[in-house]
Specification:
This protein has eight helices and eight strands, in the order αααββαβββαααβββα. It has helices at about 10-25, 30-35, 40-55, 80-100, 140-145, 150-160, 170-180, 220-245; strands spanning about 55-60, 65, 100-110, 110-120, 135, 185, 195-200, 210-215. The protein is globular, with a radius of gyration of 18 Å.
């Protein structure tokens, strides 16, 4: 389990969050940074200036900040990340409060899945905040759910340049089951002791993201799966309706 340190240094945490956002989204304005961190513009400006100083960021002529040389090259998530986070976070809070498990919002970037928002539950034993984490899409529940939405040709094209790609025939069978069930489960494939359950968000039939629950394996069983799946589907339906109102059809 990844838990927040008891004596977290807020300024360091803010700087690291900004580095994650730059890596995932490609560019930020000072105003964007201030809103994401809930800090003043002057504080956001100072944090970004330090990232520039240490080559984590560069500032262009348009005054937007972009990833610097220190951040490894990575695919950008092309979905409406800001909108997903803004609209999705209240739904994550409600879901986490109902089921008492940590709720996450995930998007796919190539063969990776990225956690763009996370709300921890109130239990002592819980899965920690996953915001900014990156995992192989074919192992994480949200990634599996989103990959299952691709047709066979698109899936093969996605992995064709990866010499270490997973067995696509095996994945194809798994994805067929996910499509039939309507949800995906990651039973400790990415982290021992953690089970993930996900449902796709597809406003206007366009799979944009996945909403997921992260559950300690000691609280997971077949009966609990049905309860969590039902609550996930309710949250996904409500969030999908709201997203559809803000996106072109």
């Amino acid at each position: 389990m990844k838990n927040k340190p008891a004596y977290a240094i807020e300024s360091v945490d803010h700087a690291l969050q900004l580095a994650q956002l730059l890596q995932q989204e490609g560019s930020l304005r000072v105003t964007d940074a201030a809103e994401r961190l809930n800090v003043s513009r002057s504080t956001a400006h100072r944090l970004l200036a330090m990232l520039v100083y240490r080559d984590f960021a560069v500032q262009g002529d348009d005054r937007r900040y972009r990833p610097g040389e220190t951040l490894r090259p990575t695919l950008i998530s092309h979905g409406p990340i800001s909108l997903l986070r803004q609209i999705g976070t209240p739904h994550l809070r409600e879901l986490a409060a109902r089921v008492h498990e940590t709720a996450n919002l995930q998007v796919r970037a190539g063969t990776e899945i990225r956690f763009i928002a996370s709300v921890e539950c109130d239990q002592v034993l819980r899965v920690g905040d996953r915001t900014g984490r990156v995992l192989p899409a074919h192992k994480a529940s949200g990634g599996m759910a989103l990959l299952a939405a691709l047709d066979k040709d698109a899936l093969r094209a996605l992995y064709e340049d990866d010499p270490d790609h997973p067995d696509l025939d095996v994945l194809g069978k798994q994805f067929a089951l996910i499509r039939k069930r309507g949800f995906a489960v990651n039973d400790q494939k990415t982290e021992t002791g953690v089970v993930g359950i996900s449902v796709v968000l597809a406003p206007h039939q366009n799979p944009l993201a996945a909403i997921a629950l992260a559950v300690p394996s000691v609280r997971f069983n077949r009966v609990r799966l049905e309860e969590l799946r039902s609550e996930l589907e309710l949250a996904a339906a409500a969030l999908t309706r709201e997203l559809a109102e803000h996106l072109p059809s």
